[in-house]
Amino acid sequence: MLKRTVLYPIHLELEATMGEFAGWNMPLWYKGIHVEHKSVRENVGISDISHMGRLRVKGKDAEKLLQRTTAVNIMEIRNLEMKIGFICNENGGIIDDVSIYRLDKDDFLVITNAISTEKDYNWLKKHGKNLEVRIKDISDATAMLAIQGPKTVAYIEDQFDETLRGLKWFSTKFIEKNEAKILASRSGYTGEDGYELYIWFQSREEVFKIWNALVNMGIPPCGLGARDLLRLECGFLLYGIDENENVTPVETNRVGIVDMNKESFIGKCVIEEKIKTGVDKLLVGLLMEEPGVPRHGYHVWKNNKLIGRITSGNLSPTLNRGIALAYIKTSFAREDITLHVDIRGKKRKARVKFKPFVKRKK
């Protein structure tokens, strides 16, 4: 049976089109994917992202555990700040990409992808076995909302705390609303300004009240369909599609967020070696030069030679052109080189792009 977020009854009331994602029954869209995409790009939108995992890591050795098991320098995270990074296996393969918040000196919140929550929990438990640390999955006791868009701040400070306007990117603040404790984070995965709210609740009605208050003041609900388009336009990766345990941050072209100055972390030696010797394939962006929508699994060609495969692809509403992420042979991973994507038996021109298709905003 598919899992449901605490807001599931609200989504049904709003007549959302529901669908399966990572084992969850989630709202894919309400009024329409492109309508919701436009709302976030130009105004504001709210999404239920409670399917993502929330792990609390506390105790004297919490920092030590996360320093060893992530490619993030945990010691550089100050109280009520966040960093993004990877959990890697011994071969440097990506177990997950996570957000790590320091709530206090020995108290951390780790945000996982929906598909990886149990895996991440077991990995941390395994490596924390002989340490003074407690790891708890608090996903069921909390909800997670994303309010995104260039006009987000006005809505947020009207409903919550006006001091949230001054939060810097990747900074947080604890607030209270309708008897619920909320961690408000200036962050998001759409390329727009916004906040992510982590809500500790005693009853689901507390979450209902917060969601309804925001929707009733004019913030339209947005489903996972719009969020997928938004993240792809900014070149953000989706775990399980664009990255997995069979690739390292080197192949995904995201080694820049790996702290190679750390003395050690699981997978560091392999990643270090790949940086030195190079890899056979790289993840790149593809901007279509001819009509056609690239999709997951489509092949990429150069001069009648198969050189790669698309992981994520769609039609960008912002650019009105097809865009994609694809693993291709490293020798062809050069900015603006022309390749071809096989779209239903026809090879269509595309250019390699390393920068986001749509400029990220904060």
The helix count comes to 8
Estimate what percentage of residues fall within beta strands: 25-35%
Order of helices and strands: HEEHEEHEEEHEEHEEEHHHEEEEEE
Strand order of the largest sheet: 13-16-15-14-17-18
Low-pLDDT residue spans: none
CATH topological fold name of the largest domain: Gyrase A, domain 2
Instruction: Note the overall shape.
Output: globular
Main beta sheet: 6 strands, antiparallel, barrel
Tally of domains: 3
The CATH class of the largest domain is identified as: Alpha Beta
Number of strands: 18
Return Rg in Å: 21 Å
Mind telling me the CATH superfamily name of the largest domain?
Probable tRNA modification gtpase trme, domain 1
Q: Helices and strands: which structural class?
A: alpha+beta
Task: Provide the residue-averaged pLDDT.
Answer: 97
- Summarize the amount of helix as a percent range: 10-25%
Our measurement of the CA-to-CA distance between the termini, rounded to an integer number of angstroms, reads 38 Å
CATH architecture heading of the largest domain: 2-Layer Sandwich
Summed up, what is this model?
The protein has 3 domains: 8-50 and 140-233, Probable tRNA modification gtpase trme, domain 1 (Gyrase A, domain 2, 2-Layer Sandwich), CATH 3.30.1360; 54-128, 2-Layer Sandwich (Alpha-Beta Plaits), CATH 3.30.70; 255-353, Beta Barrel (Elongation Factor Tu (Ef-tu), domain 3). The protein has 8 helices and 18 strands.
What does this structure look like?
By secondary structure, the chain is an alpha+beta fold. It folds into three domains: 8-50 and 140-233, Gyrase A, domain 2 (2-Layer Sandwich); 54-128, 2-Layer Sandwich (Alpha-Beta Plaits), CATH 3.30.70; 255-353, Aminomethyltransferase beta-barrel domains (Elongation Factor Tu (Ef-tu), domain 3), CATH 2.40.30. The protein has helices at 8-13, 33-42, 62-69, 117-127, 152-159, 204-216, 224-233, 268-277; strands at 17-21, 24-29, 45-48, 53-58, 81-88, 94-104, 107-112, 134-137, 142-148, 172-177, 180-185, 194-200, 281-288, 299-302, 305-316, 321-329, 338-343, 346-353. Strands 13-16-15-14-17-18 form a six-stranded antiparallel beta barrel. α2 crosses α7 (224-233). The model has no long low-confidence stretch (mean pLDDT 97).
